[in-house]
Write a structure and sequence with these properties.
Order of helices and strands: HEEHHH
Number of helices: 4
Distance between the termini: 22 Å
Shape: elongated
Largest sheet: 2 strands, antiparallel
């Protein structure tokens, strides 16, 4: 599951690096609550979200390694089972969070590219609706997995 999490976390970075080659230098970077563009910025600012995704994956990888080491060190079977359960859940959670932010990055890139090309004053895609739908699925995954983890140790 760690490899899947890393692959899914790298996809937005690679995708953004490729898309940046085709973007104009100045793109819409921020929208108000109704979708109007209220700030333009450098196309390279679009690398912020993929970097956050990679940092998040790194932190979750560190947590996974902690629980793997704990599972290997312990002699208590129940404690080992709990640690391995945490490893599995954290891998799935890390992948789900990376997918969530990766899909969100796709919409951000689309809005930046379309807005810059058409010199738009409003967002081409409704970011709020997409974010709400993506958050719904993320919270379902988190709601299913978090009760299966343990807070001990």
């Amino acid at each position: 599951m760690k490899k899947v999490m890393w692959i899914v976390s790298m996809i937005p970075f690679v995708m953004t690096a490729v898309v940046l080659q085709f973007m104009p230098d100045l793109v819409p970077m921020h929208y108000d609550s109704v979708g109007n563009i209220d700030r333009w910025g450098s196309k390279y600012e679009n690398l912020i979200v993929p970097i956050i995704i990679l940092v998040n994956a790194l932190l979750l990888y560190a947590l996974i390694r902690h629980f793997e080491k704990k599972a290997n060190k312990t002699v208590d079977e129940k404690e080992q089972e709990t640690a391995l359960s945490n490893v599995k859940a954290l891998g799935i959670i890390g992948t789900a969070v990376s997918v969530f932010f990766g899909l969100l990055q796709c919409i951000l890139l689309y809005n930046a590219y379309e807005g810059a090309i058409t010199n738009a004053t409003t967002a081409p895609a409704d970011l709020k609706r997409v974010a709400y739908i993506l958050m719904l699925f993320l919270f379902i995954v988190l709601g299913i997995l978090i009760p299966k983890t343990s807070t001990k140790g």
